[in-house]
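Listing S7. Sequence submitted for prediction.
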Amino acid sequence: MSKKIRTEAVDFLFRAILSLENKEECYTFFEDICTINELLSLSQRFEVAKMLRDHKTYLEIAERTGASTATISRVNRSLNYGNDGYDMVFARIASEEEGVGTRQ
């Protein structure tokens, strides 16, 4: 991970995010801290990453998400050469979904 982002301010932000307890709290916090466009850009990148992991083509991804090929390429580079953060989160979401699906 880049040492450039490891600052006290980023640590404080991450502590704040980790304190959120549910989706509604996430909406409340992120609507205050981000502009609508920033939040939509983050969610778009996450959707692009999911679609790339599902082996969708750049054309399919661009049509569905509205992401530019530059954004898709940047996300793809993070998936292939990054810190595996996307994969970590995807695995956790899949695990949660499997657990929810088996509960009655």
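Caption to Listing S7: primary sequence and predicted structure tokens for the chain studied. The chain has a mean pLDDT of 93. The chain has two domains: 1-33, 46-103.
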